[in-house]
Task: structure prediction
Amino acid sequence: MGEKTKKIVIVESPKKAREIQKFLGKDFSVKATVGHFKDLPEKEMGVDLKSFKPKFVIKSPNHKKMLSQIKKLAENAEVYIATDPDREGYAIGYFMYDELKKKAKEIKRAEFHEITPKHIKEVIKKAPKFEETNFGLFDAFLGRRVGDRIVGYILSPIASKEIGGRFSVGRVQSPAVRLVVEREREIQSFKPTPYYVLSATLKKDNIEFLSFYEKQRIEDQELAQKIYNDIKDETTATVIDIQKKQVKQSPKPPFTTSVLQQTANSQLRFSPEKTMMLAQDLFENGLITYHRTDSVRISDEAIKKIRDFIKKEFGNDYLPPRAKKYKSKNTQADAHEAIRITNFVSLEEQKKLLQEKGLSEDHFKLLKLIYQRTIASQMKEAVYERTTAFFDIKGYRFKTTGSVLVFDGYKKVYNIEDKEETQKIPPLKKGETVQKVDQKLEEKWTKPPPRYTEGSLVKKLEELGIGRPSTYATIMKTIKDRGYVVKEGNALKPTEAAYELIDYLDKKYNWVVDYDFTKRMEEFLDYVEQKKKNWKEFVKQLYEKTQSSTKSVISKKMLDYALDLAKKHGKDISDIIDNPEKLKQFIDQHKETKPTDKQIAYARSLSEKTGLELPEDVLQDKEKIKKWINKAKKEAMKNYQLSEKQKAVLIKNGKEELISQPEKALKWLNSYFRKRRKK
Result:
């Protein structure tokens, strides 16, 4: 009897592999690639600038080991590549396909949108051959990865040199930084203007309620004061009109990636990368569907289960006669589902399932949000009875509004974002008079636009068509890690480096921070995915752009230095202020060559510590003293003893191997404490 064909399923994460292994049993062997196992090299460009051919390398020794194990297993086996159902996941799958296609008996593509036994088995059963899948996904990945590498590798060193300092330029991160900088400048240049709000407190049947002068904002102080004085002694108000209407409020569609990130940021104060980390765990543990999507569609089968759950849990009153269908903005998105729960059980049961998997309180907070939004999206509207009444007070019209919630509908489950003004108004009849018990005139000031939060920045990027579900969290993380924005509370504030970078790019590489260009490039990649455009054309356009403006530019630092020197030497440089070459010549001629007192004192103390000779000519020359100091620092390091506290920090963070390398240890410790201070 011939031996049974081995079946191998390949996913990205070990946790997901363990979960799926449980469902598929002993006929299958489920292995993990542990994320991207191939990437462009870290220390070089890794792209041929003539052919744009990338050089992908195995990322680490561990990945090398994993790959050789999978290759052995795949000999004559039936392989299912089940990496994530998006571009990045497909790319990992494609690299694996490339490694195994000569070894395996056949290779199929499985896309898991939820990690549940039924779904996994169905997908495995229907999996198409890998050759029949859309290779456009891999091409779109190539375009993004290679294009981003070229922009970063070519422009970052130029920007660093010309601005002075360490700067990184990114095709998508730089426009995000520009948004934060522009918003901050709007706030700085904002001039508040006063306006006036006039209200009267009215009373009937012992119920007090507020009414406002019909022009809610009065710009003219004199007019506001005049009305206030005119009605001051009036003790009644007459009802001149009443309007009643029923207002229905519909539930919001289920979550897409960006809306989940925005809501978790505003409601739970989670950063987008934290939200994505928690969602990844919820997905891998089979509690939600795949968390990278821009679709609001829910499968018919899931809708049926949600409707059954609503009926059982809340009763028929809360169930609309027909299922609600939501349409995504772009039709392509609908291949995926929205982010929804996979177990249609109560919140208490959800919590139990989550605890069985050993997940945290934060996981539960996010799961609760997804649960509420999933269920609410299929419930009936909330209904308000809204009354608007108009009053005459001494010939001036005042208006009051009150709402009563008649039926809570979906708000029974999800009532966090909609604000319907509710104030209780007594029953009123046209023509009757009510008491006026008080009036108030307030001066208010117009407010500047608020700073972006990570949530509202994601929303803005999505509106502008910049970035995609898989990249928002990475963009946020990058602009924080690179030191372009800092968080104050939940708000994002640009650093000095952000202003310098954006002003520089604006002058010299404007296309990098042009929202429209970035959007067009994202759309280009969508066309590549649909096989309507070629990825190399995408990369070529970006490469040509990086080459088109290599003329020198004057950095703020250089200009400030030149102006300082001109002042010191009593020179007028207004005629060369826009000429980089002449400005550089002027600086070279007039720059200070003597070291500062601080440098001299530091050099002398190093000389004493190390016993190194400090020649007189070194003390006269700025460049020479810099070189001497660097040499002496290395010498001093040889005998440097780390303190017990420093050693303890290294050991606690698993860096004990650095104890014998004081120079590296200090470098690591500096960066560790800097990050701590930022937090």
